[in-house]
Amino acid sequence: LDMARERISFQGLPARICWVGLEWRQKLGLAFNEMVRSGEVSAPIVIGRDHLDSGSVASPNRETEAMRDGSDAVSDWPLLNALLNT
Description:
single chain, mainly alpha, 4 helices, about 0% strand
């Protein structure tokens, strides 16, 4: 997190992009859980969908809206909007 804070520009929310290979995703999730449990991180952590697997960026107002690949119905945007607006 310290390295991300130093190297990645502010993106509007206190958020960071994290590109993690398949073999490290479970380890990273467990590390996040431990950081929350220990109190090292107190803010909510939201992990959105994997843009590398979908082959595109996720944006409700751009090229991924109403994609015919079946992902529109399971898009994470309604979930993220609910988390950020409630």
